[in-house]
From TrEMBL:
Name of this chain's protein: Sensor histidine kinase
Keywords: Kinase, Membrane, Transferase, Transmembrane, Transmembrane helix, Two-component regulatory system
InterPro entries: HATPase_C_sf, Sensor_HK_TwoCompSys, Sig_transdc_His_kin_sub3_dim/P
GO molecular function, one term: kinase activity
Keyword Signal carried by entry: no
Transferase among keywords: yes
Transmembrane segments annotated in the record for this chain: 41-59, 71-92, 98-121, 133-157, 163-190
Domain Signal transduction histidine kinase subgroup 3 dimerisation and phosphoacceptor: 205-273
PANTHER family to which the protein is assigned, alphabetical: NITRATE/NITRITE SENSOR PROTEIN NARX-RELATED, SENSOR HISTIDINE KINASE DESK
Pfam families referenced in this protein's UniProt entry, alphabetically: HisKA_3
């Protein structure tokens, strides 16, 4: 039973914040990590033009050269540190991320403390942005709103009033950056999911071609081998060239059909019919000297199961020819079931190969089932049931 409460690892949620795994996945369809980091640094570097207004405001020298110089130095270190965090932060370890955010807050608060003005706490928007980028939401959001609360308290203590414009700027930037990073994570994971879907489609197509080629060539080559062996025995033991030529004509027809089937399989145009496979099984079993007890009509099976039942007959008869010492092979078909059984010796440990595994996948694709193993009367039996039979 699937637990619906279990989080989907391929779906981004707030609990996974921050999740930069799509940057580190080299197979991702998103921009490579280097390009993404350069883009982030450039965009945020342009946004740091807000600090230029403070530099202009402090250039009048009202705070004195020493304090002004210290503030300029800390603002410069703050800007450089913020850009370095943008570059190294997403790929850093958890402890390193915490240290980066703490260092940014320390550098951002220092100018306000030197100048004794809570207005300059608005510059902490960049430190809050780094927190949203690197820390879980349960830490980064309280950090942002706690900074706004601290600015309000300082303003009330110092001036007895609150400059709401500056506070709202801090709160609004915190909220906007949270939305921006949420979109960044979501878009990144959508791109990664799209790339995974593309790879899965390619893998499924490869599996389809491999399975169809196995079904086509396995049966055709087994029949050709039997025909060649029969032709060699005829030529070695008798002078009946007419019979040998008849077998060679069958071989020629089988080769052409196999080549046509391979081409159609690769092009995904190949269709399998139960009637055709039963006719082919009759010819192959006859060439192997196995008595074939096959249905005269195959219309009993429903139309939507004709194709998959054709694959079952092809693979099951191929296994009789290649792996069994059976003298008799029986095929029975009903509306939503098909049975192929023989009277050969069944080993104690039957390991299903690619053919039976492929048949099980084909039956599952039509909501059916496949059973195989020792039959009730001995020998090996393959039983395919459609949806109604499975129920």
């Amino acid at each position: 039973m699937i637990d619906v409460r279990e989080p989907d690892p391929d779906r981004f949620s707030a609990r996974q914040w921050p999740d930069w795994s799509f940057w580190t996945d080299a197979r991702s369809g998103a921009a490579p990590p280097h390009r993404g980091r350069v883009r982030s640094v450039v965009v945020n570097g342009v946004m740091m033009a807000f600090l230029v207004t403070w530099v202009i405001a402090l250039a009048d020298g009202r705070y004195g050269p020493v304090r002004t110089g210290l503030v300029f130095g800390f603002l410069g270190c703050y800007a450089v540190a913020y850009l370095l965090v943008l570059w190294f932060g997403p790929l850093a370890l958890r402890r390193q991320r915490i240290a980066m955010v703490a260092a940014l807050f320390a550098l951002g608060i220092t100018p306000a403390l030197i100048l004794g003005s809570p207005a300059y706490l608005t510059s902490l928007t960049y430190a809050i942005a780094a927190g949203l980028m690197l820390l879980p939401l349960r830490f980064s959001l309280p950090l942002g709103f706690g900074t706004a609360a601290a600015q309000i308290a300082w303003m009330l203590v110092r001036d007895g009033r609150v400059a709401w414009g500056q506070v709202l700027t801090l709160v609004a930037v915190t909220a906007i950056l949270g939305v921006v990073y949420a979109l960044t994570f979501t878009i990144g994971h959508l791109r990664l999911a799209r790339e995974q879907i593309r790879r899965m489609a390619v893998d499924q197509e490869r599996q389809r071609v491999a399975r169809d080629l196995h079904d086509v060539l396995g049966h055709s080559l087994s029949t050709m081998t039997l025909k060649l062996g029969l032709t060699r025995r005829i030529l070695e033991t008798t002078d009946n060239t007419a019979a040998a030529l008849a077998e060679i004509r069958d071989l020629d027809e089988l080769c052409r059909e196999a080549l046509s089937d391979v081409r159609a399989t690769v092009s995904d145009y190949r269709t399998v019919s139960l009637a055709t496979e039963v006719a082919g099984a009759r010819m192959a079993l006859r060439a192997a000297g196995v008595h074939a007890d096959l249905p005269a009509e195959t219309d009993a099976a429903t139309a939507d199961l004709q194709g998959v039942f054709g694959y079952v007959v092809r693979e099951a008869v191929t296994n009789v020819l290649r792996h069994s010492d059976a003298q008799r092979c029986t095929v029975r078909v009903g509306r939503d079931w098909l049975e192929v059984a023989d009277d050969g010796t069944v080993p104690a440990d039957v390991v299903p190969g690619h053919g039976l595994t492929g048949l099980a996948e084909r039956m599952a694709a039509v909501s059916g089932t496949l059973e195989h193993g020792r039959g009730p009367h001995g020998g090996f039996r393959v039983l395919a049931r459609g949806p109604a039979g499975a129920a």
